[in-house]
Amino acid sequence: MERGLRQTWAFMFRGYHLTRRYLSWVVVFNFYALTGSAAVALIGVAANDHQLTLTLIVGALLWNFLSVLYNEIAMSIAYERWEGTLEYTFMAPVSRLVHLVGVSLFALCNSVVNTTVVLGGLMLFTPLSLSGANLPGILVVILASTLAFVGLGVMAAALPVLSPERGAEGTHIFQGSLLLVSGVYYPVDVLPAWIQPLSALSPATYTLSACRKLVGIGNPATTAERLRPGRALGQAHGTLEANGLTPRGGGAAQRAGRSREPMTKAARGAATKPPKSQVPASAAASTDAPPPRPAALAMTPDSAAPSAIAKS
């Protein structure tokens, strides 16, 4: 156990040394991520729409975090090849699980630092306040999506091994496809109908949707000073219950509606059924109805029939 932890720490520390070696490029990439996110968020500020600004900020922050995490893991094999250490790494007496865990933990730490820098920069450009946001729920959602993107990064890391010439390019094409179909800056409903099913395959789609609800996007009570995530979720539950989509209230209403539907149809049929006096004679003769009463008693009520017979 101790040996595995030391080996995992060694891979994390190697990533730190590589980052320090190319520190100037790291600063450039972080600056580019900050300016790109700020440029997107300022679209909502220019439109004077706080909901749009929140939507763009959440999309920019989450995509920055997930893309850095994915890119660090997916390009780890390519970095090893460029540094000339790929053969030494695979020949070392270290299990592949320890190798992947060490690389993934360093990528996670790098993503957190990068996203923190971008978040601090966005607070200087936009009226962003996290007061009222459901931060514990957001952390749980991000943790679950982190596991999903680590898996995608590990799968993409195999591309440079399969194709040393084009594998690294394939990882970026896959990353761009995720950006397109995940609804980072727009709802997935605006995508063409033939590409919308692909959004259901991206874990970023569900991460963005959940985090936007936890921040309070979609709730009219959300303001620049105070976010209202709880009320937004309550309104969504109320809307589902009103439409009969919740298991308690709506489901019972639907079942009651289904049970009343045959009775309603029967009552409707009885109301529209013509009386016997209006049925044609031919139709009445063809039925198994009892024989008609005598002409003398045709207009006499049933209760008076015995007395009439006695008088006669």
Secondary-structure topology with pairs:
Elements: H1 2-21, H2 23-46, H3 50-74, H4 76-83, H5 86-91, H6 96-125, H7 135-157, H8 159-162, H9 167-181, H10 196-199, H11 203-215, H12 229-242, H13 249-272, H14 281-285, H15 305-311
Helix pairs in contact: 1-6, 2-3, 2-6, 3-6, 3-7, 3-9, 3-11, 7-11
Characterization of the model:
- The protein is mainly α.
- The chain has one domain.
- The chain has helices at residues 2-21, 23-46, 50-74, 76-83, 86-91, 96-125, 135-157, 159-162, 167-181, 196-199, 203-215, 229-242, 249-272, 281-285, 305-311.
- The chain is globular.
- Mean pLDDT is 76; it is low at 231-312.
**Rough shape?**
globular
How are helices and strands ordered from N to C? HHHHHHHHHHHHHHH
What oligomeric state do these chains adopt? single chain
> Helicity level, as a percent range?
over 70%
Uncertain parts: 231-312
Instruction: Provide a count of the helices.
Output: 15
- What structural category arises from helix and sheet content? mainly alpha
Strand portion: under 5%
